[in-house]
Amino acid sequence: MGRALGRKDVHLTKRTSARNRNLSLSCGAAVWVIAAMLSLTLAGQQVTRPEGWSTLSHGSDADPNYDVVFEQGRVMRIDFVIAPEDWMSMLDDLYSNFASGPGGDKEPDPNAQQDNPFLQPDGPKELPLHIACCVGKSEGDETILVEPNGNELMGHCVFDDRGTLVFKPDYPKSMNPPLDPSLQSANQPMNPREQPANQALGFPNANGANPIYVEATCLFQGQIWEHVGIRFKGNSSLRDTAQSGTLKIPFHLEFDHFEEAYPSIDNQRFFGFKDLSLSNGFRDSTLLREKTANDLLRLSGVPSARSAFYRVFIDVGEGPQYFGLYTLSEIPGDPMLDTLFGNSGGNLYKPEGGAATFAFFDEGAFEKKTNAEAGDWSDVQAVIDALLADHRNADTWRTELESVFDVQSFLRWLAVDTILGNWDTYGSMPHNFYLYNDEDDDQLHWIPWDYNESLSDWFSPIRALSLDNVGNEWPLIRVLADDPVYYASYLSYLDETLRSALDVDALQQTIQDSWRLIQPYVVGDQGEQSGFTLLRNPQEFSQGLDQLLDYVERRAQEVQAFLIEERFSSTAIVISEIHYNPSAEQGDDEVYEFVELANIGDFAVVLDGMSFADGIDFAFPDDVWLEPGACLLVASNAVAYENLACPVFEWAGGQLANSGERIALVDAGGVIIDAVTYDDDAPWPEMADGGGRSLTIVDCGLANDLLFNWQASDSAGGTPGSVDD
Fold first, then answer.
1. 454 vs 204, 293, 294, 357, 376, CA distance in Å?
2. Contact 101, 121 (CB under 8 A)
3. CA-closest candidate to residue 384, choices 355, 364, 410
4. What CA–CA distance (Å, rounded) separates 168 from 157?
5. Are 291 and 327 in contact (CB under 8 A)?
6. Mean pLDDT over residues 450-468, rounded?
7. What backbone phi and psi angles, to 5 degrees, belong to 34?
8. Which runs of consecutive H residues, i.e. helices, occur in 98-154?
9. What's the pTM value of the predicted model, to 2 decimals?
10. Residue 485: CB partners within 8 Å, gap ≥ 6?
11. Burial letters for 488-499: b for 16+ Cβ neighbours within 10 Å, e otherwise?
12. Which of these, 230, 215, 665, 675, lies nearest to 411 by C-alpha position?
């Protein structure tokens, strides 16, 4: 078994228009970026790549370089040069279609920044909408926020964590018309054809419109990317930030957006990445929540984006201006999908709107990010149909649902997301998630998105750990939580997260280290500046840290208390080693295959009723116990391992797939105790695929289905029966 727990500044000056740039690059003294000229053939014509083009950093054939783009333990700098007229076009579009203008000539917003040369000089002077709709009201009063596009969002007034009376949205369940009440009974399946038309649910960008792209030149670590597409992004983080008078607005980058106008940048990438997101830390005085949550999700086995801290500088004709500290994240698509699933050709959706509740089907709520020309939403409809089907025969219902939807991955996300206290997602808002149809298993998989408002419970009522405050209008949660088998799995994922990613001491230390890392670039001489910060004063940055640390400790205590209340008991049994494709030198493949189980807990565990639901056919007999720190083998041929000091059992049928598959250990009620989906393709260890080595777990305390938590054994034949301290 494997190991147990145990720029310098860069100044780029605009010389001409966006279409004809002559750029100079200086780092104290003039430094010119010189690179070989590359060429390509497009439509039978020879096209010359821009000066500075590198296949590894700019080309689409290179592997994504996560180590460069998402370097950890460092705050990196990225610069953009935007033509003044393009910048004004961005602001015109912003104030016309997505937000009112900055300022406050009535009751000055304490967060507003005046005399900002980057702002549109003739923009309207109004309070931000989320503050203006609560003027003259008291805490708890009902109010309506009217979006610039005319959408009305119902809510009431609350004091935010800065003491300002602001708008807080109500849950979509209060909207008119209501969703089908027939969902209240699990045995009265909803007919999707009887549902109302898709609703925008009051989201600023729910109609699919986005701010305009303009051209920018990007500079990073001495290299240049030309004609990069840059636009503002976001919903409330866009609207409320713009109205507050600060220009620390979130951005979306698309490196080949203008390739039709400029064939020389065809398929341009940023170290392998086509799209990237720059988040501004909206409603987060620590600027840590987005990255911390993404890291926690990944650590817990949830497929999610990688993030890193960046200082963003923008030059619109007056030299580089520090726009503040941002969180850069990858966006679901290629290469993120390839990294997570090993393929990227399946349907990718970004749902938003009424049907994104999964209470009925309407293709308009499921924006296709890939394969849009196919016009086929049958995979989404299949999930909704299966979810809402009559499930009086629960076993058949679960089987049919799991054939089209990765239920266990969703339940794992649900557990981690509920612990994080994320209100701005499914269960309260029908947005901020993606769906991907994995080409290998033909299941839809859940990919979370946007976590700047997580790890906090001040802004809106968060989802209860019991899930009892989630109504029937959210069937993907409610229906699954009402099923005893799925609810038990949800509890097990809560427990697993508590024991691993939510380790209070380790997580608090990570948060404090990250806070100290970014501190010089948030407050102080090198920190964020007036007009380009969401902080009202430097003290907020320190106070926010204390609040975040307190939430982590309190939430862990709440999870532990809840599991005790639910009388949940973890078995502490994990799949610790898999020998799925022995080498020819060892002998017959089928003879030497095995799965090892280990007890990583402090108490002996009885295995009566436990069995393997996938991969192999085996159920433990009565009166089998596994002592703390001990392990046992379930093998294809018990005789092949009869000399081991640990117990060895022989499975009744089946075989471990050499191409990879899912192995699941379940209890007598079908509740998953532990499950692993291994693969024979990189980055899974090549030596375990017929090279004589086994797959061994690295850290038993981490989620067992994390790819990086598995390695090839040190010795041929694996290490069956050994538990390292």
1. 20, 7, 10, 20, 34
2. no
3. 355
4. 6
5. yes
6. 87
7. -115, 125
8. 129-132
9. 0.75
10. 394, 398, 669, 670, 671
11. bbbbbbbbbbbb
12. 675
Burial label, 510 (beta-carbon count in 10 A; 0-12, 13-18, 19+): middle
Q: How far apart are CA 660 and CA 656, in angstroms?
A: 8
CB neighbour list of residue 207: distance below 8 Å, 6 or more residues apart: 149, 200
Cα distance between residue 546 and residue 508, in whole Å: 10
Q: Are 299 and 500 in contact (CB under 8 A)?
A: yes
Q: How far apart are the first and last CA of the chain?
A: 10
Q: Hunting for tokens 């333990």 — which residue is that?
A: 73
Residue type, 396: T
Q: Residues 6 or more apart from 372 whose CB is under 8 A from it?
A: none
Q: Is the distance from CB of 443 to CB of 404 less than 8 angstroms?
A: yes
CA angle at 180 for the pair 178 and 184, rounded to the nearest 5°? 110
Q: What domains appear along the chain, each with residue ranges and CATH number?
A: 11-86+209-337 (no CATH), 115-194 (no CATH), 341-565 (1.10.1070), 573-712 (2.60.40.1260)
The pair of structure tokens assigned to 725 is 């301290």
Report the 3 state secondary structure along 482-544. Answer: CCHHHHHHHHHHHHHHHHCCCCHHHHHHHHHHHHHHHHHHCCCCCCCCCCCCCCCCHHHHHHH
* Beta-sheet strands, E only, within 97-146: 142-146
pLDDT, tens digit (0-9, with 9 covering 90-100), for 550-589? 999 999 999 999 998 998 877 788 999 999 988 767 766 6
The structure tokens listed for 558 are 């709440």
pLDDT given at position 724:
54
Q: Give the DSSP letter of residue 682.
A: T
User: Going by C-beta distance under 8 Å and a sequence separation of 6 or more, which residues neighbour residue 191?
Assistant: 180, 182
- HEC states along 37-97? CCEEEECCEEEECCCCCCHHHHCCCCCCCHHHHCCCCCCEEEEEECCHHHHHHHHHHHHHH
Q: What Cα–Cα distance (Å) separates residue 279 from each residue in 311, 324, 361, 551, 627? A: 11, 11, 31, 22, 48
Tokens representing residue 680 in the block: 């024979």
pLDDT exceeding 90 applies to what percent of the chain? 54
Instruction: Give 16 or 81, the one with higher predicted confidence.
Output: 81
| Nearest Cα to Cα of residue 390 among 185, 565, 143, 632 | 185
Place of tokens 């769906």: 435
Dist. CA 292–CA 489, nearest whole Å: 25
Give dist(CA 447, CA 294) in Å, integer. 11
Q: Which two tokens stand for residue 152?
A: 């009305």
Distances (CA, A) of 178 to 102, 125, 196, 365, 501: 36, 37, 9, 17, 38
- Give yes or no for a contact between 42 and 263, defined as CB atoms under 8 angstroms apart: yes
213-216-219-220 Cα dihedral, nearest 10 degrees:
10
* H-helix or E-strand spanning residue 394: helix 394-402
Rg over alpha carbons for the chain, rounded to the nearest Å, is 27
Q: What is the DSSP-derived secondary structure letter of residue 611?
A: E
Least Cα distance to 638 among 719, 577, 714, 720 occurs for: 720
Q: Tell me the per-residue pLDDT of 471-501, one tens digit each, with 9 for 90 and over.
A: 999 999 999 999 998 998 899 899 889 888 8
Q: Angle at Cα 227 formed by Cα 225 and Cα 228, nearest 5°? A: 70
Cα 312 to the chain's mean position, in Å?
Answer: 22
Tell me the sheet residues that pair with 434: 447
Look at 14-18, 80-84, 155-159, 603-607 and tell me which has the smallest mean pLDDT: 14-18
